[in-house]
Amino acid sequence: MFYHDKKLQYTVKVDKPNPQFARALQQAIGGIEGEIRVCLQYLFQAWNARGPVRYRDMLLNTGTEEMAHIEMLATAVCLNLQGAHSSVIESIVGDDPLMEKIIGGGDPRHFLSGGMGALAADANGVPFNGSWVVSSGNIASDMFANVMAESTGRTLATRLYEMTDDAGMKDMLAFLIARDTMHQQQWLAVLEELGHGDIRGVLPIPNSFPQSQEHQEFSYAFVDTNIDPDSRSAGQNRRWTQGPSIDGKSEFREIKAQPVGDEPMLAPPIPEGHAQTEQIEQAGQKS
Amino acid sequence: MFYHDKKLQYTVKVDKPNPQFARALQQAIGGIEGEIRVCLQYLFQAWNARGPVRYRDMLLNTGTEEMAHIEMLATAVCLNLQGAHSSVIESIVGDDPLMEKIIGGGDPRHFLSGGMGALAADANGVPFNGSWVVSSGNIASDMFANVMAESTGRTLATRLYEMTDDAGMKDMLAFLIARDTMHQQQWLAVLEELGHGDIRGVLPIPNSFPQSQEHQEFSYAFVDTNIDPDSRSAGQNRRWTQGPSIDGKSEFREIKAQPVGDEPMLAPPIPEGHAQTEQIEQAGQKS
Amino acid sequence: MFYHDKKLQYTVKVDKPNPQFARALQQAIGGIEGEIRVCLQYLFQAWNARGPVRYRDMLLNTGTEEMAHIEMLATAVCLNLQGAHSSVIESIVGDDPLMEKIIGGGDPRHFLSGGMGALAADANGVPFNGSWVVSSGNIASDMFANVMAESTGRTLATRLYEMTDDAGMKDMLAFLIARDTMHQQQWLAVLEELGHGDIRGVLPIPNSFPQSQEHQEFSYAFVDTNIDPDSRSAGQNRRWTQGPSIDGKSEFREIKAQPVGDEPMLAPPIPEGHAQTEQIEQAGQKS
Amino acid sequence: MFYHDKKLQYTVKVDKPNPQFARALQQAIGGIEGEIRVCLQYLFQAWNARGPVRYRDMLLNTGTEEMAHIEMLATAVCLNLQGAHSSVIESIVGDDPLMEKIIGGGDPRHFLSGGMGALAADANGVPFNGSWVVSSGNIASDMFANVMAESTGRTLATRLYEMTDDAGMKDMLAFLIARDTMHQQQWLAVLEELGHGDIRGVLPIPNSFPQSQEHQEFSYAFVDTNIDPDSRSAGQNRRWTQGPSIDGKSEFREIKAQPVGDEPMLAPPIPEGHAQTEQIEQAGQKS
Amino acid sequence: MFYHDKKLQYTVKVDKPNPQFARALQQAIGGIEGEIRVCLQYLFQAWNARGPVRYRDMLLNTGTEEMAHIEMLATAVCLNLQGAHSSVIESIVGDDPLMEKIIGGGDPRHFLSGGMGALAADANGVPFNGSWVVSSGNIASDMFANVMAESTGRTLATRLYEMTDDAGMKDMLAFLIARDTMHQQQWLAVLEELGHGDIRGVLPIPNSFPQSQEHQEFSYAFVDTNIDPDSRSAGQNRRWTQGPSIDGKSEFREIKAQPVGDEPMLAPPIPEGHAQTEQIEQAGQKS
Amino acid sequence: MFYHDKKLQYTVKVDKPNPQFARALQQAIGGIEGEIRVCLQYLFQAWNARGPVRYRDMLLNTGTEEMAHIEMLATAVCLNLQGAHSSVIESIVGDDPLMEKIIGGGDPRHFLSGGMGALAADANGVPFNGSWVVSSGNIASDMFANVMAESTGRTLATRLYEMTDDAGMKDMLAFLIARDTMHQQQWLAVLEELGHGDIRGVLPIPNSFPQSQEHQEFSYAFVDTNIDPDSRSAGQNRRWTQGPSIDGKSEFREIKAQPVGDEPMLAPPIPEGHAQTEQIEQAGQKS
Fold it and tell me: For the segment D59-104, what is each residue's pLDDT rounded down to a tens digit?
């Protein structure tokens, strides 16, 4: 079963709110490359696991971690939708002026349906779809599905990173990119354990993103979210918690899940969003 | 952020495996009345919350609890898909023989796509859809959405209860029905707090299900999943943790989240499902 | 705007309730060939109409009529889900025993989600999808979309007709098949009016269904649902209300919408469906 | 069965056409908070009703009324897509400049697929989905589903109201907001009748919208769309047609459905939309 | 079975890259009026064909041709997303300034999910849906479905034609419009063969688009994609390969499928899209 | 562009028609593990390819091959839906009697919507969804997506193989399983070429299926569907056309695409499916 605390796994700060970026972030929440998908995928694979228990344990840990990523991104969407300073994406990627046109406007449903809140949908407002949750009953198929999810996920995160010059958002994405680095490797570690796996050269995907820009203290660490003192940790003496990483660039290690971020605090509702009167008046009150 | 242990919130036991019932249980996992919907709905409402902090806290707790319900139901699906004894639903509900025809067969994707595992889909295999996740930014709208979800959810659970004579499944459902009883009330408690609410007569919905059959020790208890000792619990001195329940039938109380069930242990893969060879050979091994 | 009475456009009677047939009927409600689609398609074409007013008028009439068809079919689903007599589809079509296997079981969501009620979904429980509503702004494109909808719709209705030996269901379908005959022709009449159209030989589609089995008094009659005495009727002196039918087999005429059927009366809820207690106790009460 | 006239339930006038607002209005047509959903939801609940007849009657009336709301909004979309004056949303809500960015552009499918017509889709072009139509067979669950639909629906309508300074659009929305006020209450009146219901303080949701801005002559009136003189009206002596309103702010009353608006008249097709030649030449002709 | 070469069926050239137009083109790829739909629809009708072989043969040819249309449009999307010159749609259709607002921005998923590539989705990013593929088993129903698809498809293509002043894009669309002209007629030719069909006046739909602007050498030519020298061609002596066209404006003829366009050559990945390093370095290399 | 002949890539023969198996086969056509997905995925990756030309070439070849696989499976569905002998799945997999229950009945839409034809949908009738088509712009991400598709696809095919004792169906599946073996390896060959890849031990996935049962002459052969004599073949001297296979079990080779199967010939329409009269009368006629 599951537990929570009120803090974020990593700091989420937005210096210059930007609704277009809020829309883009939705892809990482509810898109096919996004966190709802990996969260449910790893958890369903765990719940359906009929093989060795260690894989079930590993999947439970990482599925639980992904919950915290959805939380971070939903918070980031909310923060990008509030505040007084208008600041569109100006210093957009590279030397190609067409890029700017592609981004388009925000998502009107952030206001119309959410009152300035995140949606369980992608960057075009297309809802998350449960068909994306792969749990095949074959551990190798599942691991490839997971590597694929983390590869397209990390690629998406690096593109979001390039799209923004907001320091807070870049910091958050540098953390998420690092976690994707690790997650790619841990699924490949299972494949190695099951046979013989060695595809170091292509990792981490995309390999064109300089790893110096990701938060490397998290790039090769397995995060253990299990709080039961009586239960053997999933990670002890596993291929994915010690020894050289699959890409040969570091050593695996294991850390206990621990929030780095604070409890998030959103701005009060704007009047035009027509929250309940009491909700507006008591906004931010703790009791 | 989120944590887990390896045990189930409540015992999940299947005496007579039944693939048709596995299919029916999918409605409670991935259907519009199901647990993935309420889990994401409460969590998105929490993450998007701009009003008083106590509502955000409450939503986080119950959203986290719902994760454990998906886990229980996914485990129940897996257990209904395994084993040697064929036992179709015989003593189906009531005196209407047509009922039996309605149930139909199992879901072939349980084998074809899942290798005898649960899906993120409803009883007809229609995938979970993120559009069902309501988070409107208006706390009263959201609370009505939540009451509605728990009312259709409890109605579904009582129908599943009537469909089976498997003691283990009836026991699990009696727990889930009790939790729905509580959840209906806690959202109404918010509405009461925000204005003046009193709709006791209709509760719990459906009121035609005898409450003596639900596990009443859980019917009026708020479950606190927050493990941070430094963080004030969501439930202390709240309308939904003490005082008379909204239906006037009991007193609210608060309990710490605690697993009643064990760590689940599924049967090994069947050969025809073509898991990896190593997965079959090492099934059940802890390390 | 819209009005109603409490009676059905045509009689809906079920002699031998049959949940499998209830499932099959769903295709005619919420499937791509079904009545929700044509209802919304004709109404959106009317509301978006920028050409001559007479086409807008015609579309409004037939779109309104289709509402009554959804109502008839939903009633038919409910009646097939109730009652004490078990009677599976025995004398299924033709000399091919495989046909029987294809039909499969009922839809478990009729009980689980609907408490023995119809769904806005197709025969596999896949929800109605608004993308099927074609309103292109080009009247000829729209008319072809409408002929196509009525052709696949009539084909579906004849297959349902062949699937059942229930006299009541055959009677209802004979009416709906006749209406599809007319609707195919009225859209083709617009094409004729706009240019020169003559495709009589293939009509009505499918032409392999003997028209003697459809209720021919409705096969060439335009139904006028407009109740405003001050508003010129859509049908007066139109190509689709007088003169030879497009298939050359009859004369068009116009009739005022008039219920042939009675107010439907469903059986009370079964206890296992857990309606509210009051709902069960007061079932059928008029006040 | 169903009938129509050619007029609108309430006046729909657009002073300054605005494609962005046309896009936003789509949420109220084909979104989960929109009118297609409530229309089908109330009608399916009526058609599936197995309890007391008075609830079936009430649902039929209001389901029929909602058809007229889809019609009004589709007309509003069409009017916002035509005309010579460019007038983007300038005086957008409140003091938060970010709001303006959120709205984004129009929906290209209004031109590409519709030739300047409305779609059966939401503000992001996501099609209406039949899974949103809740008809559970439990009248209390259904009533909560209906209150929820009208709460999120009224919240959406107030947000649309804040987004525009077009007098015609504000007038139309003030009517729709009033109808949502009534609809919230009539479903709660059923809950009161079934048990004991009193949640007056939170109503109407959102309670932060000043009711002086809604058309209050429609805020507490049950609209009877039944035209059968022989059939007892649904509303006579019902909890929802007389006595104090649920929110304690007024008295319920009943009115016969009567169009306030005129027959809509759209501009002819623009040449670039490539309607048929005859359609363009005869645009607006009555015969 | 199927074969390919590396060239395009017709030239695809983009003079002024335009991401908004790239978004609009998606409607012709993955929208309900688009090429994936007709491709799969004709092929499924062929594979399911139980009637005379000549219809199966015809469907196979045209289904195969449509593959090449998806290819052309996907290439056009890619070319509109690359290059150094910013050139928004300026000389947009007609004299109505509102049109410009409707188009909105680009699709952010072209960058976020595709790295500047096309998607299997419509202009709003809504994914292609298999429910649109009509194959009814009744050849007349299927032919009307096909005429409808080509009518809405040609209408869409003419609107795209009006939206752009890019010579390359206009040239490509003039080809596709011509092919739609032919395809409308060939399905009607089947209807004529099956009965008696003559609806010349409305063709080609839309008839308001001047045919002098389409590439008329392709407007009445059946394209034979069958490469098996031993297999009798589908088109020999068929109603759709010789004799007067259905619209009476030309003569049908048959041509062997032959690429007019070259092998496409896209620009290298932009650095911000984070392709693999090797992919960027070796871009355009042939071996 | 694309070409076809009228024969099947491999023989498709059904000895004992079986509608339940027809339903199961739909998963391999329109399911997330199915052939429409891989076909469109490889083709979109080709059309969007911005890296070295050799990858684009390879993708075009295999995407084209997959078209032929959809064709084979659609033919197999049709053949399983026709004929006079009733033969349900009796000797179902393994020693677990529950398996039989899981399969359930057929898909009623095979008759109702298709007149005994295949659908673009999965085994539960859920339509194919374009969101499954992954084309990320990062070649390594794409290759992992492709390995995943072929791993879940081969797992599905082996499960279908275990479900049937029909010699024709086993023969067809043995071919498709062999092709999946090859396709897994060729995508891994790209990864090897891009870096350093060696994961031989787990291959082919699932490794629990005895390769002696697949048609091994196709297990390590790249199929070249390119018919342009002037265009350099994709496969010459490529990692995936010569040298040891990735799993170390064989040598890669290249073969020209060549049909092994015959032109399919389906039974005439059954009368109850109401094809057009002419279609029934002329069934099987070649001209």
Answer: 999 999 999 999 999 999 999 998 755 444 554 545 566 777 787 7
Contact yes or no for B247/B200 (Cβ under 8 A): yes
Average pLDDT, whole number, for chain E?
89
E95 touches chain D (CB under 8 A): yes
Measured distance CA(C194)–CA(C186) in Å, rounded: 13
Q: Cα–Cα distance between B178 and B185 in angstroms, integer?
A: 11
Q: What are C11's two structure tokens?
A: 């009689």
> CA distances (Å), A285 to each of B197, C140, D199, F129, in order?
22, 61, 23, 45
Cross-strand pairs, A3: B3
Looking at the predicted structure, is the pLDDT value of residue C85 above 60? no
Q: Can you give the pLDDT at residue B97? A: 67
Question: Phi/psi at D4 (nearest 5 deg)?
Answer: -150, 165
pLDDT mean over E76-105: 69
Cα separation, C262 vs E229, whole angstroms: 65
Classify strands A253-256 and A221-224 as parallel, antiparallel or unpaired.
Answer: parallel
Domain of residue A165: give its range: 19-90+105-260
pLDDT, tens digit, 9 for 90 and up, residues F218-244: 999 899 999 987 776 544 678 889 898
Q: Is residue C287 part of a domain?
A: no
Q: Given this model, what pLDDT does residue C35 score? A: 98
CA distance A140 to A282: 52
Checking if the pLDDT of B72 tops 90, the result is: yes
Q: What is the ipTM of this complex?
A: 0.94
Least CB–CB distance from F104: residue in B86, B108, B113: B108
State the pLDDT confidence band at F200, using cuts at 50, 70 and 90: low
Of E25, E40, E39, the closest CA to residue E125 belongs to E25
- D 175-234 residues inside an 8 A Cβ radius of C: 194-195, 225-228, 231-232
Partners of residue D26 in chain A, C-beta under 8 Å: none
How large a percentage of chain F has pLDDT more than 90?
68
Q: Give the residue among D34, D39, D9 at the shortest CA–CA distance from C67.
A: D39
The DSSP-derived string for C6-67 is SS-SS----SS--HHHHHHHHHHHHSTTSHHHHHHHHHHHHHT--S-HHHHHHHHHHHHHHH
* Best residue in D107, D165, D208 for a mutation probing chain A (most A CBs within 10 Å): D208
Q: Encoding tokens for residue F253?
A: 């080779």
Q: Which CATH number fits the domain that encloses residue F174?
A: 1.20.1260.10
CA dist E199 and C199 (Å) reads 7
The whole-number pLDDT of residue D86 equals: 47
Q: What residue in F sits closest to C163 (Cα-Cα)?
A: F272
Count of residues making up chain B: 287
| Residue D270: inside a domain | no
Residue E222 is classified by DSSP as E
User: Which residues of A, range 227-256, sit inside 8 Å of B by Cβ?
Assistant: 227-228, 231-232, 237
Which chain B residues are within 8 Å of D131, Cβ to Cβ?
Answer: 32, 126, 129, 131-132
Q: What is the pTM of this model?
A: 0.94
Q: Which amino acid is at A141?
A: S
Let me know if A250 is exposed, middle or buried by CB neighbors in 10 A (0-12, 13-18, 19+).
middle
CB distance C156 to F110 below 8 Å: no
Within-domain flag for E266: no
Tokens of F42: 């490889």
Q: Which chains contact D through at least 3 pairs of Cβ atoms less than 8 Å apart?
A: A, B, C, E
pLDDT at residue D16 greater than cutoff 60: yes
- Residue D13: inside a domain, yes or no? no
Number of structural domains in chain A? 1
* Measured CA distances, C125 to C114, F36, F141 (Å): 12, 22, 34
- pLDDT score for B242: 87
Average pLDDT over residues E38-47: 98
Greatest alpha-carbon pair distance for chain C in Å reads: 62
Calculate the average pLDDT of chain B. Answer: 88
